[in-house]
Specification:
Elements lengths: L1 H6 L7 E2 L20 H4 L3 H19 L6 E6 L3 H16 L3 E2 L8 E6 L4 H20 L4 E6 L5 H10 L5 E3 L7 H11 L3 E3 L20 E5 L1 E2 L10 H5 L3 E2 L2 H13 L4 E5 L16 H9 L6 E5 L8 H9 L6 E3 L7 H6 L6 H14 L4 E8 L6 H14 L3 E6 L17 H24 L5 E9 L7 E5 L4 E5 L8 E9 L4 E4 L1
Parallel strand pairs: 1-7, 2-3, 2-4, 4-5, 5-6, 6-7, 8-11, 11-12, 13-14, 14-15, 18-20
Antiparallel strand pairs: 9-10, 16-17, 16-19, 17-18, 19-20
Helix pairs in contact: 3-7, 10-11, 11-13, 14-15
Bound molecules: S-adenosyl-L-homocysteine (SAH), iron/sulfur cluster (SF4) and FE3-S4 cluster.
The site of iron/sulfur cluster has 10 residues, from helix 8.
Length: 503
Amino acid sequence: MAEAVAEGIKRKFDIFQISRYNKLIPHRKAGQCPLNRKDVVIPAGDLEKQRDFTRRAAGYLARLGREPRAFVDTYGCQQNVSDSQRIMGMLREMGCVLVREAAEADIIAVNTCAIRENAEKKVFGVVGQLVHVKEKNPDAVICLCGCMAQRRLVAEKIKASYRHVDLVFGPQALWKFPELLCSVLSRRQRVFSIEEEHGSIAEGIPVVRESGVKAWVSIMYGCNNFCSYCIVPYVRGRERSREPEAVLAEVRELAEAGYKEITLLGQNVNSYGKDLDTPMDFADLLAEIDRIPGDYLIRFMTSHPKDAGEKLFRTMARCAHVAHQLHLPVQSGNSRVLKAMNRGYTREQYLEKVRQAREAMPDLVLTSDIIIGFPGETEAEAMDTVSLIEEVRYDALFTFLFSPRPGTPAAVMADPASRAEKQVWFDRLLDAQNRISAELHQGYVGKTVRVLVDGESGDGAWPLSSRTHGGRLVHLRGGRELIGQYVDVKITDSNTWALFGEV
Ligand code: SAH
Ligand code: SF4
Ligand code: F3S
């Protein structure tokens, strides 16, 4: 069926675009070899050209004789959510209205995640289904972007077997979306832009934010850490920081527009500034942001424990706008496994950082990511992770079973433990964490806390959802008019996942 649809469309040839910009710095040099700023920042003239392409794309789309419609489907982490908001921004500048269903759209972008095999399988299922959209509307343009698109094997599979997909581009090519889309619209040819690049920084791309309450601000892109299990450094390129002035201007604009919660994003925000001409670290950036007046809260993610330290914790404690919340992924509680993961810290060093952070902020809300079943992990080593979480008592955890990612060192390590064994360890970890979360949540009952009401919950009994300063979810009773406001609430009940309260 996919072939029949593809044949209905005139295609001259497929093009793999070669980047004019840069080549990827190899793995071995990533840490020691900061990027040269002039190779990273996209010149204003090139961005202006993209605006020309936006106008041209609008011209092609105007031929529909009605408002063109676009749908963006997002998978993966907050970085992808933020990228999707930029894709939507560019589509809106082309005159598109944003719709909620692929079936209604003329342009469909699926923004994908490659972090685990399951995430990829899901996307292949979704993209496979889009063939039906193309049958009904052969002029629809289907785009696959994000981290999966950057994997050559994925791009080749799409090229060969998913002929209804018109455009494939990785995160590094996002800023060229107008140009890539114009190539598809003008010539009806398939375009693949997945060159391996160290990546760039493009300022001033339009953005559609999801609400007037919360906003994401990327402060840096890419990752140099090459944890041995992780695909991100291969698909997101090398670490590069936005200029502090650009970050400050964006936060100022958001605070002035009344945004109440601003989350700074980066794969490892603690590496911020290492590549700037005038180095400035993440703690310095936080302190600068904190001087921006307004009634807003700053959160950030993610912090790599190897680079988090007392300067950061003391700065967080001192800055009135910065939430006392830290997502500090430990991954494992066993030092041998941590070494095999290439994490750069031991169990003891991690625990010492947690102690320092709590000393600086006794009310700190602490969360983490855990991988169970890393190749070669034994039952005793997995139980070291359970004992670590018992010791730290995280407010919440994000837990994953190891998933081999092709091209990463861990994917070829011997992995003798069975899936069933790993599942048993995983369940023990979850049982322990669920008990800890429930106990910590119980401790809130009877207290009055300040929350930001951020939306509707869809639950008739507790119609509003809100977050404490530490980021814990509170279901509330109250009217819609409270959305976007800070209110004091009395916590009346709790469970493993959330708190319940009344204004
Ligand atoms: N930059 C962040 C993590 C981004 S990925 C950091 O370093 O903390 C989010 C989480 O996915 C990771 O923290 C890790 O727990 C998990 N993850 C990454 N690769 C994985 C893999 N191959 N298998 C299972 N979980 C993985
Ligand atoms: Fe992946 Fe490690 Fe980089 Fe996080 S720090 S994105 S886990 S390589
Ligand atoms: Fe997934 Fe890419 Fe984020 S792999 S987790 S969407 S950086």
